[in-house]
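Please check this:
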Amino acid sequence: MKLLKNNKLRIGYIYAIAISLFLIAAVLGILLGATEFKFSDLLTVIQKIDSDSPQAKILWFVRLPRVLASLLCGAALAVSGAIIQGVLANRLASPSIIGVNAGAGLAVTLCSAFGIAGGWRLSLFAFFGAFATVMTVSFGAKKWGASRGTVILMGVAMNSLLGAISAAVITFVPNVSIMNNDFKIGDFSGVTYIKLIPAALIIIISIIILYTLSNELDVLTLGDENAKGLGMNTGMMRTLFLMLAAALAGAAVSIAGLLSFVGLLVPHAVRRIAANEAHHLIPLCALFGAGFVTLCDTFARIVFAPYELPVGIIMAFLGVPFFLFILNKGKGGHGRA
C-alpha cells in the first residue's frame, strides 16, 4: 500500500515537471526572439486583440503560430515514436530512423511540385506517405522474420530510397528546391495558420484516440501470442496504432519538415523516469516532447540573434549522442519497449 502511494506521488511529481516545462517553454517561446517582449507587453497585446501595432502583429502572426507549431510537432513526434517503439517492440525505432518522416517528406515534396503548399491536402498526403512507409517496414519485418536490429536497417534503407526519390523530384522541378534545405533539416520559421490548423486538428484528435486506446496498446506490447490469448485481433490493432502514429508524424512533417530524434529521445527518457504504462506514457511524451522542441526552437532563435539556426540542427546535436549512448549500453534495440 505504501509502495503504491509512493509510486502515485512520484508520477504526480513527474506530471508537475512536465506541465511546468510545457508552460515555461510556451511563454519563453513567445517572449524571446529577435524582437523581445516583456511579460507586461505580452499582457497589453493580449488585452488589445484588434491592435495594429507592430508588437501585436509579431505576436499574433509570427510568434504564436510558431510556438503552437513547435508545441504540437514536439507532442506529435514524441507520441508517434512511443507508439512505433511499442508496436515494433524496438526502443531504437522512431519516425525519423525507420523512414516514416522520410515517407511523409516525399509526399510533401510531391505536393510542393504540384503547387500544394498547405491546408488539408498537404496533411493528408503527408499521412499517406508516412503510413505507407511504416506499413512497408512492419510488413517486411513480419514477412521475412526480420530481427529487431534488421528493422532498423530496413528503415535506414527506406530513408535512403525515399530521400533519393525526393532528390529526383527536386531535380525535375527546381522550384521545389527553394523549400528543400530548411525542410530537410526541420524548421518552424515559415509556419502559417494555413499550414498549422489542419495539422493541429489531426495531431490533437490522434493523441486523444491513442489515449483512449491505452489499455489495448499495453496488451499489444506484451507480444502477439499473449495478446491473442487475451482475445485481441493483433493485426487490426497493430494497423490502427501504426495509422495513428503515421498521422502524427505526417502532420508534424507537413508543418516543420524532417525533424529528427524527437521520437527517439523523448519516449526513451519518459520510460526511464516514469513507466511503460500507456496511460502515463502518452500524455507525458506529449508534454515533454512539446516543451523540449519549443525550448530547442527558442534557443535556435536567440543563440545567434538576429540570425537563427534551423531547429533541426539543435536536435541533431542532442539526438546523435543520445542515440550512440543507447547503442553503447549494448541494448542494440533488442529490449522490449
Q: What stands out?
A: The chain is about 75% helix and 0% strand.
